[in-house]
Amino acid sequence: MATLTGISKTSGVSNSVITEINDNIDDLTDVVSSESNIISDVSTNLLSLTGVVEDVSTNLLSLSNATFNSSLANGTTVQGSFGGLVSGTNVSVLKTKTLDQIFDMMFFPTQNPDIEYPNGSALSITGGHPSGTKTIGSSHTYTIDFTTNTNYNKVTPVTGSVIQPYSGFMLEAQYKNFGDSNWNDFTLPSSSTNWRNVNATSSITKVVAAGDNGKIQVRVRYDNGTYQPVDSLNNNFGSPYSSSSTFYEKDGSTLTGVYPRFYNNGNLSNGVQQVSVQGVDTTTNSIGINQNYAESDSTGVKHGWEIPNLVVASHNWSVQLYDPIQQVYNTLDSSEFTTSSITKTIEGNTVDYTRWRKQSSEQGASLYRLQR
Asked: How far is Cα 278 from Cα 282, in angstroms, rounded to an integer?
């Protein structure tokens, strides 16, 4: 018990006051002692609660690491997909995994890399070679080359930069020129690490023949690759490229040889004609002819045209005039036009033509067609 000492009567404080002060000190000491007991009890309870939390955490950890132990038959399947847990998965598969692994499957599906195999579509034939419809006898000098689109022959990993090429480097590159039956070899660059380019074949000359001249083709093949793609779990996905015997081929545009047509126009009196290089419309078996100028009997400017016999020979042709009101072609009487045989010099060659020339009274701009 605490007491107040050192105070004497000479200080002027009575004994009763001293006694009261001592009593108050005793009461304060009791309060402090009681509070200390409460704090001690709280600390004990907190320690006990911490132990409970640790036990719960331990049990939860043990539960998450526990193997899935379903009473369902092994052949039972998951009925709907959830994240990476796909429909049709057997219970027998899930029984080999912990709950953690199953939750990972559901919420964090395995991601696979994107693999673009080599493809003929990646090749673009270049070099200025002729294509489409060209004049028979015309000469064209060009190069055969190709470029490779880098959107192909690559692996895009789940993380990281693009791996390119997926294959090994180019082993062989070949081409066919117009009309070739056998493949010709490109020369590969001296660097063995170049998989995209070849040494172009240049100074090729082609004289266009009549009809279908064929097309240019290129093809390439690549060495086996060494890169092993992996998924987001770092497991192997597929395998390195291994198709070194496979060629990837690309066809160029076809080349067709025709003689030009000659159409009259408003400058016919000056010997000028429009020139068109095209064939017969195989859908309608017709040749469309636009005479977009008015005739003049006084100047001799009449509608007419000249078509190579290579196109019109061996067929009977009628002249039809388009009716813009009815939106149909009507066949004209044979007396409306006269025909005659002429020759023209085309690319140094003498070529037979048939000339059509209108005989009836003058008329405005008109749209004709020859129909067989």
From this structure: 12
